[in-house]
Write a structure and sequence with these properties.
The chain has 242 residues and is an alpha/beta fold. The protein has one domain: Spore Coat Polysaccharide Biosynthesis Protein SpsA, Chain A (Alpha-Beta Complex). Helix content is 29%, strand content 23%. The chain has 7 helices and 12 strands. The strands form 4 sheets. The protein has a 5-stranded mixed β-sheet, with helices on both faces. Strands 10-7-12 form a 3-stranded mixed β-sheet, covered by helices on one side. The protein has a two-stranded antiparallel sheet with strand order 2-3. Strand 4, helix 2 and strand 5 form a beta-alpha-beta unit. The two termini are 17 Å apart. Bound molecules: cytidine-5'-monophosphate (C5P).
Length: 242
């Protein structure tokens, strides 16, 4: 992770958002700090991003209560900033910390430990042309149901995609979307629905492209997901040293 030169702002910055409380996980501490085969969940993706030759700066967004004494295992050079109430607030805090320093910004969920270097490269390359998200095809048949749970119809799945992180943005685009957010372009209650960053672009009519995601790039939401992640390491599907 070479140092970025603020004067040229040519580099790539990565924001890892990890300020959530993880209520669905149901443990005493947020899922991103739970041990995953010897390292906290969050440490896995931070290490991959720090070690990636295309990534110049890494910002980790933590809950405000953790910022004063951040985890000792965070690698040197990683900037820690306090997040906000909603994910979008945390991304904005990370983007502000990078402001002006980089030309491209990746936004990654700290709850996805198994992001691969190859996926980071695909997103970095894709983001040079505009916002980009990694996606994977939907294998299941998808139904739409009414409020009572009765089937209303079948949704053709050939053009449906599941969306992952890291998502990549030209810094100017990400900052513009957040500046409009600050200016009240949409209502605060929408913030809870902003589960990814491409959504901001979609609302502004900015084209978002896709690159192939990675089925191993699991998001840890429940205790079952953590068990699956551990099994992926123990069976060698994910290299323990990643
Ligand atoms: O809640 P969910 O799992 O969708 O959160 C996705 C990511 O966003 C997690 O890594 C979580 O820590 C982060 N987040 C955040 N600030 C919030 C809410 C979520 O950084 N206020």
């Amino acid at each position: 992770m070479p140092a970025a030169d603020p004067a040229t702002a040519r580099g790539v910055g990565a924001i890892v958002v990890a300020a959530g409380q993880g209520h669905r996980f149901g443990a005493s501490r947020p899922k991103q700090f739970v041990d995953l085969c010897g390292m906290p969940v969050l440490a896995w993706s931070v290490r991959t991003l720090v070690n990636h030759s295309a990534v110049d700066r890494v910002v980790v967004v933590l809950a405000p209560s953790r910022v004063a004494s951040p985890p000792a295992w965070l690698p040197d050079g990683v900037l820690v900033v306090p997040g906000g109430v909603f994910r979008a607030d945390s991304v904005r805090a990370g983007a502000a910390a990078l402001a002006g320093d980089v030309e491209t910004v990746l936004v990654h969920d700290g709850a996805r430990p198994f992001v691969s270097a190859e996926l980071v490269s695909r997103v970095v390359d894709g983001a040079r042309g505009g916002p980009v998200v990694p996606v994977i095809a939907v294998d299941d048949t998808v139904k739409r149901v009414d409020e009572g749970g009765w089937i209303e119809g079948t949704v053709p799945r050939d053009r449906l995609r599941r969306v992952q992180t890291p998502q990549g943005f030209p810094a100017a685009v990400l900052n513009r979307t957040h500046a409009l957010d600050d200016a009240g372009a949409w209502k605060a209650q929408d913030a809870a629905a902003m589960t990814d960053d491409a959504l901001l672009c979609e609302r502004l009519g900015i084209d978002v492209s896709t690159v192939e995601g990675d089925p191993a790039n699991l998001k840890i939401t429940t205790a079952r997901d953590l068990a699956l992640a551990r099994a992926m390491i123990e069976t060698g599907l994910i290299a323990a040293g990643n």
